[in-house]
Amino acid sequence: MTDDDDKKEHDPLSCLQETRFRGLPVAPECPSGYDLFGLSCLKHCKSGYETYGIMCEAKCPSGFRDDGAFCAKTKSEWYGPWYRRRFRWTQSCPSGMSDWGVTCKKNEYHREMAPESCPEDEEAGICYNECDDGFYGIGGVCWGECPTNTDQCGVICLGPTENCTERIISLTVGAMQMAALAASAPTGIGAVLAIKEAYEFGEDVNYPICNA
Fold it and tell me: How many other C-beta atoms can be found within 10 angstroms of the C-beta atom of residue 202?
């Protein structure tokens, strides 16, 4: 019996798992009252404060000049008799701000963090679109479930007359190529290549695609 004959002799129920690319990773979601900053959920700043990255910084009240980390005083007066005139600022720093004479140091605090969550499916801490019914996700690829009366053997669904161990030994190289592609680059072009490899692998061993 030739190798070609061996490829053609398999259980009629055996087939290769159907694969679909489910898209690139999607952004995680944050709880109510939090913003997504990078890959972290940070709480909104309280009233009277504005956001600066991971920090909340007090806003300058009306009548003060915003100088970045400071609120500069803008109103002053001269007082006292003409022979002993004195200068003073007529503004007081807002409550909680440090008075530095001509300016006030803004208050600031770190924004509180909260865990993010995936809107649909999560794989190894990365968010993906959920697979359709009858499929399960591994990285960026959705793999079809094996049909009734077949058993999963790697990426192949074997009928009752085929033995998984024997089939794995004969097809180890192809299966390892697919596994390496899916594991090393589960998203983007890696996922597309894994699907392409799976279909080419199925053609090599003469297995049809399940549910095709």
Answer: 22
